[in-house]
Amino acid sequence: MIDEIQVENLALIRKATLEPARGLTVLTGETGAGKTALLSALKLLMGERADKGSVRDGEDALTVSGRFFGVASLEDADAYEGAELVATRRVGADGRSRATVNGRMASVGELAGAVAPTVDLCGQHEHQQLMKPAVHVRLLDAWAGEDVAAARKAYEQAFDAATEAAAELARVRDASAASSAKLDEARFVLKRIDAVDPREGEYDELAADLSKVEHAEALALAADAAHEALAGESGALDALGGAVTALDGAARFDARLGEWADALREAGYVLEDMARETRAYRDEVEFDPEALARQQERMADLQGLLRAYGPRMEDVLARRAEAADLVSLVDDAAARERAAQKALDAAEEALAQAARVLDEARLQAAPRFGEAVTAQMARLEMGGAQLVCAVEPLERAAWTRTGPSSVEYLFRPGAGMQARPLARIASGGEVSRVMLAVKVVLGAVDEVDTLVFDEVDAGVGGATAVALADVLADLARTHQVIVVTHLAQVAVRGEAHYVVRKAEGESGMPETDLQRLSAEERPAEIARMLSGDVTEASLAHAQEMLEQAGLA
User: Fold this and answer.
1) pLDDT tens per residue, range 174-185
2) 517: enclosing H helix or E strand
3) Apex CA 35: angle with CA 465 and CA 53, to 5°?
4) Residue 493: which residues within 8 A CB-CB, separation 6 or more?
5) What pTM does this model have?
6) CA distance 533 to 527
7) pLDDT greater than 80 at residue 79
8) Which residue of 24, 149, 162, 485 has the smallest Cβ count within 10 Å?
9) Where are the beta strands (DSSP E) in 148-297?
């Protein structure tokens, strides 16, 4: 739910703050005053692409900040702990965009993931989404809830399994049809690598061992020299022993010399250990020319494989597995194809069953959804118009992960008339009202906190305007609703009323001013909406409408 939005230097807005009510908030004002710019600010917080042309002339950047409460859908719940979320979007005059979420730098995608799921923006152009059949199935499934959700999940899993099974069968058939040259190459690769028969980790082990074998004489000489220096005649151990004896002899005159003698004894133990180690190492070193030759030959074989199929031994082993798989596929082509075909048949049978269950669930939900929307359309003074939710089976080749049937909303203008696709028969005003009816029906099951309507009342008047206001007020009982409107009938129902005006700023440039109206100020704005001017009669009418709405 939106708690507050602050906008700076966006289009004609120099600075504006919007604090919508929990229920219905209305924005009114003359055409061109800048009401839609406020919605553009909200779109930026929802992750819409930034346009440097939106930066107010003469300014370096625009900034939009929003505080949201009760945020329930986040990409990273650990990053945005608690119910409050503060998001900021800054767009420079150079087009560069920056975003933060709760004070932390964020990508535009993270910003969209945090904000967009909680807000549904239904603008003058957004209702065009209702014209797309691809959206219709999503709306039906959302309304049907668990009745369809489980069937759809099972269908999606079956569809994925059938797709994988078909891909495996195609792979087996492609392999069996491989060219003789490709097959010959695979057999050559397999034969060459198997002739060497490398094992994982062997190359590194051999490289370490070979280094020691090749330098066996030098290693033995080094160990022997170290042993002689430590334990040989006049070696370090003899010298150390002499030092200990001398210090012990004088320790009776100075205790510190005794401590030094003890320290040297400790050092002597280490030197004795090292003398034994170096002698043992010297005695263990063997120089075997035949073993060296074998290891060098093995290393050459392994390096040959690395040059051909490397650069790593893992690459060599992977190339062998690939070649072996191709040879095996061809050699066992018939058996493999039978097995793959059997697996595909089983997957298709499971998919067909899941498709029947999903279709049945949607066929049961579709007429009930259509009736619910039609009931709301009747409230909106759409006469005998009806929304028909048609579910038509598709050929197997046309099935998608969404389902085995097409779902499309059809519009019937009146009783006895043929239902046709909504996109081909309904007017723009009718589509806007159908969209509103759909939103009302979905209101009980969706996870959206805030609904924003941008001039959904275009072309509406009279009794229809009153009905529209009633529907929006009902929707505001379950959602936070923000409406940009030109209808006084809608404006009087707002719990919060903002007026948008365009005026000349201090610099002479036009500015959009946003002001929340007090109870005393509302009648004048309602009167202007009624008659285009504030007269005694229009003020009286406005006051009466506010009293009837219970907001005077």
Assistant:
1) 876 665 667 788
2) none
3) 145
4) 24, 26, 469, 472, 473, 476, 549, 551
5) 0.61
6) 7
7) no
8) 149
9) none
